[in-house]
Amino acid sequence: MNKFTGLVRRCIEDYRMIEDGETIAVGVSGGKDSVSLLCALASLRKYYPKRFDIHAVTLSMGLEGMDFTPIAELCRSLEVPYTLRETELGKIIFEYRQEKNPCALCAKMRRGALHDICAELGIRKIALAHHYDDAVETFLLSLFYEGRLSCFQPVTYMSRTGITQIRPLLYVGEGTVRSLVQKYNLPVVQNLCPKNGKSKREEVKNLLKTLSAQYPDLKSKIFGAMQRLPLEGWEPAEYARRPLP
What pTM, to 2 d.p., does this model score? Predict the structure, then answer.
């Protein structure tokens, strides 16, 4: 946990993600990434020089069979306030609209709903659980399908809602997340989205896995290139620091 939290802290400092006295919403989908982020921030707040509080937020998509009781129990054990918001976004996307390519619409609708919850709670910053591998995959998705050198930013201010999004897991690889969840037996809610494991992202993930067998440091080179170009918003405070996935 100390190593994991150390990587999160380094990312926060490299991109100046947290200010003294803030309350930060943590988007907790119930998956391994968001649960790990919640635990890391709950640990970090105990000793980080800048004082901050956290408030866990879950947006239920209304998909039958997803039970967030274990997340509520985890939040109680961490002494973190928890808000669960029930919606019918899943039905809107997959039943009413029957979207053929639902992922982009889903992401947009979920982001808007999370920002609405933050506004109701009086919170102006939300931490999202995109990690190192997510960043590399998103960069390649933009390159392959849009012909652009692009990726989400470590810190993004959304002018329409006044909410700032931060991504403190960007120096943490998916394998490290998985190990943490297994070691501490953290609760994970199974993702029952019909598109889970069937998206373009999954195709890129499999491609990276194949290429990495021949080029073991491929992902670290791509991530480093994103920082050195740099992509907009990706230049870290200290170039000498490098991610340790």
Answer: 0.91
